[in-house]
């Protein structure tokens, strides 16, 4: 028994992924759609509508022509979610661990500083937030507050960091809130509380900084 055959040979446009195929409104050629980074690097672009339903491993980045991604760029994680959200960092903070881990300064004040960070891209091998990343956001929040408290011309340098891990977290965001325990002419001590999206405390710590 024979089956109907096409009168024309297979054209390049019928091959999946062919460059001759007609682009849809949300195609990779759309300049307004952000790029998606997968485990092996950039894999395409998505629209704002489709990104809202994307998996947690997909990360949207702005056009590299407008904001170059740090080099070397990490492959396939959400470590630079702040770049996608255009979070405001001071010039001195760009290209640092703050940007690498996707930290965002929510409140910048000597009496209260808040910094948030995505868990995605900062996990350890068992899938929970890495303790080193928790320590990093604690020191970062306290350091941002210490810079706001520093006398004119002085630069705070961390001298002693303590961290107590209380609860694990595997998704969402964490927020570090730093408040002063001591503010002197040469030293400051900040206490930092780290919470998850449900406002549960996952870690606490302190940072003593010296003004140099």
UniProtKB/TrEMBL annotation:
- What UniProt keywords apply to this chain's record, in alphabetical order? Hydrolase
Q: Where is this region: Disordered?
A: 1-44, 60-80
State if Hydrolase is listed as a keyword: yes
Domain called Thioesterase: residue spans: 127-202
Q: Where is the composition biased (Low complexity)?
A: 1-35
State the Gene Ontology terms under molecular function.
1,4-dihydroxy-2-naphthoyl-CoA thioesterase activity
Q: Which GO terms describe its cellular component?
A: cytosol
- Protein name stated in the entry: Hotdog fold thioesterase
């Amino acid at each position: 028994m024979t089956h109907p055959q096409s009168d024309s040979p297979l054209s390049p446009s019928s091959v999946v992924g062919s460059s001759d195929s007609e682009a849809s409104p949300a195609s990779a050629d759309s300049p307004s759609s952000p790029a998606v980074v997968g485990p092996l690097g950039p894999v395409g672009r998505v629209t704002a509508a489709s990104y809202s339903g994307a998996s947690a491993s997909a990360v949207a980045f702005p056009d590299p022509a407008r904001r170059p991604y740090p080099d070397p760029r990490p492959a396939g994680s959400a470590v630079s979610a702040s770049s996608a959200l255009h979070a405001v960092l001071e010039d001195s903070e760009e290209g640092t661990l703050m940007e690498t881990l996707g930290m965002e300064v929510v409140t910048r004040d000597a009496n209260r500083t808040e910094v948030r960070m995505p868990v995605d891209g900062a996990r350890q091998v068992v899938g929970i937030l890495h303790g080193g990343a928790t320590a990093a956001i604690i020191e970062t929040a306290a350091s941002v507050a210490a810079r706001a408290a520093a006398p004119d011309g002085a630069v705070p340098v961390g001298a002693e960091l303590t961290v107590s891990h209380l609860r694990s977290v595997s998704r969402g965001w964490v927020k570090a809130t730093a408040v002063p325990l001591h503010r002197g002419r040469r030293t400051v001590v900040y206490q930092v509380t780290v919470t998850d999206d449900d406002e549960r405390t996952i870690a606490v710590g302190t940072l003593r900084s010296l003004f140099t």
